[in-house]
Structure formats: C-alpha cells, structure tokens
Batch of 3 targets.
Target 1
Amino acid sequence: MLRAPEAVSDDITSGVQMPPRTTAFRLDDEPWVEVVDLSGRPGVVSLREVLAASSELRAIGGEIPIIAFAVLRLMLAVLLGDQRPCRRARLARALARTTCR
C-alpha cells in the first residue's frame, strides 16, 4: 500500500523543484497524500487508500501542519459530500466502529 515519495525533477530555469508534469490527475486514485504508518515509515498514498487504511496510519500530511489540516478537511468533504441515505448509514456505522487513540 505505501509507496515511497517519488523523486522530484529539477527545473533549471527557475531553480525551483517541480513535480513531473501530467495531463490528468485524479485526487481519489492517484497517490499524493503524505502519510506515516504505525511503524513510522513515511509514504505516499491515494485518498481512497487513506480512508481505507486509516487505522494503520499514525499521521497524515506533510512537513507543515496546515497541510494535514487541509487534507483532513478534504477527506471530510468527500465523506460528507455523498448524501445518499445508504451511504450516510454506512458512514455512520463505520464512524461508530472507529476508536480514537
């Protein structure tokens, strides 16, 4: 599940490191969320993987705390955005099973 962060290519003209260019990027399926698992190993996973393996993760976000806050807000919006009754009931059951550490 966890993948090591990909190398970042150097942009010689501006001196700023830029990620490789892509034509399309799906926030739900593509790995982009920086995480640390319970053993302390860092990795990059997709939004779906974060939600599916949340009990196996110690931390979400990057080096700056505001990034973790933004990612958590996005995940909350995704979870609450689908208002179909069957999904709401399933989410309520999943949240009821979750324990805080």
Target 2
Amino acid sequence: MSKLKEKWSSPVHNCDLCLTSIFEYGEFLDAKTIYGPWGLICPKCASSSVSVNGVEKEMTVGIGQIYKLDDEGDWAKVGDLNGQPYRRTKES
C-alpha cells in the first residue's frame, strides 16, 4: 500500500514577509515566525536572520512544514522543521 503525500490545499501566492512570488522558488515554508504569527515564507526569508534588541535571531522558530512544487503542480509536504532552523539547500 502506498503512502499518500500530504499536499497544501489553499492558494499559494507570495511570501508573507518579502512579497516575492512563492512560485519563483518552487518551495515554501508554512512556519511560525519570531514575530509570533505563522506565515507562508519563501526559502530566502526563512534562511535569513534579523537583529532583535541587538541579538541575531533566525526568522523562523523551528515550528512548521516545508512544501515543494511537485511534477503534478501540487505543493507536496517534504519535511518538518522539528524544532530546527530552516537551512536553504542549493536547489532552493
């Protein structure tokens, strides 16, 4: 019996942080940000850090899922952050 892929079912448009089209990367994160709310975040923003009160912090807090555009044009879940910061791969 094959395992069904988990797929994103809502519309995907732009990164909630930089407003770049998610389609430009073919990958996004549905993740909690250091600011509190969750968002659809492009790989560039997710792998960046910001200064908060003089301390460099990762943009995401390690809670969320990673989705990639598959050959069928669906956004398939490919991983979880599992408490770890997102690290952008060369393909992203």
Target 3
Amino acid sequence: MRYAIVKNGMVENVIEIHPMNAAEFPTAVQSDIASIGDEYIDGAFYRDGEEVKAPHTILLAEIADLTQAVEILMGGREGEAVALDPRSASLTHTERAQMHVEAIQSAATLVLDDAAKKQ
C-alpha cells in the first residue's frame, strides 16, 4: 500500500509498504493521494492551501450535485425542464428525470466499485 511519511506536519516521502510492516514506520500515513511537500493537518492532506481529495470523493460530490439537479427537475411541471440528453426530447418530464437518476446511480455504483477495488 502507498504511505506518506509525515514529519512535523509535512509529507517528506511517499513509499510502498506492506500493511504488515506499517508499524515499523510510525510516521507513515496510508494515502493514495499524498505527494511530497503536502501538509498533513487533522487527518487530511493539503496542497497549496487546498485539501487534496481522492478522485472518487470528487466524483461522488459531483454525483450528489447532479442528483440534486435531477430532483429539482422532477419537481417542475411538464415541459418546464430542458432535456439534458437530446435523445430524451420525446420523453415526458418525469421519464427524462428518471432516466437521469438511473444514469447517476449507475455512475455512482461504478465509482464506488472502483474505489473498493483500490482499497
């Protein structure tokens, strides 16, 4: 697994360690996202003052935003929402919204499956 070697709140190195040997590196923090020079504060890594987030975390946030947008669309009246996919133009508002909810759920499943494989 990938670990960041942290000293005085800064990542000094990034190395691969077998989890069974991690105890031999007391300043090692398991991370797939840390880079040399990052800050480590309260359990999170920061680069240039911004928290470094794993790609699947960013995608999950985007999926949540899209889900909220679809829920807003579902609350509108028939014909008010613009179709997000041109192929859905002949569908009713509710059918279009349902199609987008299903696409978002599929994307979320793929992201979570990919993240689980990396752990």
